[in-house]
Amino acid sequence: MTLEYIKNSDGHFVCPHDQCGKIFTRQNTMYYHLKRHSKDFAYTCKECNKGFLQKSAYLQHMASLHIEAREIDINGEKISNPYNGVTYQCPCCEYSARTKANTLIHYARIHSDGWIPTYSKNNSKCIECDKNFSSIAAYLYHCTGCVPTNKHHRDMISRITESN
Description:
three-stranded antiparallel sheet
């Protein structure tokens, strides 16, 4: 599939689909955005029929929603589920999740004590790098690695990333 890219006067990529109008600064971000419009997914979940552009996103989906599956079908090839039995524990409470990202988001949402600025549709930019986010989960996950913090939060994040 050949994709054609449209740039605006600022040199940013503009989505050509009707009533979309999303603008991206990077060509590869526009590439994946256009693939979503065309529903050209490289990986499809056999359990719920959801499509994914990247293998890592598909595996994360399987880890968070279909962990009971001992095998994962990747385009006709059966592989052992790398997330079977893996959990990430919050160091501050009893919460645990099957993915590191979900545990980090939980920590940022519940235990961050003012470290990460509040997310809203009007305030969805990272204060460090100015990147925009369309979901609170993506914003919080990004900020756990981008927004400077104190030793306590660094230690907690380290404990989450090392657990499983």
